[in-house]
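hey so i finally got around to running both of the ones u sent me last week. sorry it took forever, my laptop kept dying halfway thru and i had to restart like 3 times lol. anyway pasting them below in the order u listed, first the sequence line then the structure token line for each. didnt double check formatting much so if smth looks off just lmk and ill redo it

first one:
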Amino acid sequence: QVQLVESGGGLVQAGGSLRLSCAASGRIFDSYSMGWYRRAPGKQREWVASFTSGDNTIYADSVKGRLTISRDNAKNTVFLQMNSLKPEDTAIYYCNARRFVGSLPNNYWGQGTQVTVSS
């Protein structure tokens, strides 16, 4: 069972920065693809950023150039550095760990951390 615990959310003014953390229970980065998602008020959860093969990263167009995903393998922690924040970035941010068992995805989610950007 994979456990993910996010932290680092809060209230920030537009243009500000936050750094989210996701602590995983054990060494899972070799087996799981890690990423971040978010759910804005009244909207469905959407993908934000993730690692692909190795240390390669990929981002949603809406956050490209402002948000950066990174990880510390020794601490089993994934980060999301958020710069130049906009009010439309307001959402609950979720950490995700995914692997495929055959053709079926096996997903684990954290409890989420609230990010609120004021204008």
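and the second one:
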Amino acid sequence: QVQLVESGGGLVQPGGSLRLSCAASGNRFTIRFSAMGWYRQAPGKQRELVATITGGSSTNYADSVKGRFTISRDNAENTVYLQMNSLKSEDTAVYYCHLNTPARAYWGHGTQVTVSS
């Protein structure tokens, strides 16, 4: 059974930075070759894709975060990161880690990111 545990959320001022982490536990082989990603959900809105990274480290970003956010992964630690710079108030949301294996998708419980002065 795969588990995803996010950390690193919090309160930050506009223009600031945060780094989210997501540690995956379970079948290391499956995790290593599966795509991982970050999604977010703001109050009253649908969950949306933020960024994804394949097992081969190819990345994809939502237009709204391109140039500000960077997704990366450490396969030795089964961890995916989201470096968020130049944060805006509209980035405020619960951020969820996602793992897409051939059998099924997994979600973390989410971590709150609040951008406010």
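quick thing i noticed on the 2nd:
Helices lie at 28-32.
anyway thats it, ttyl
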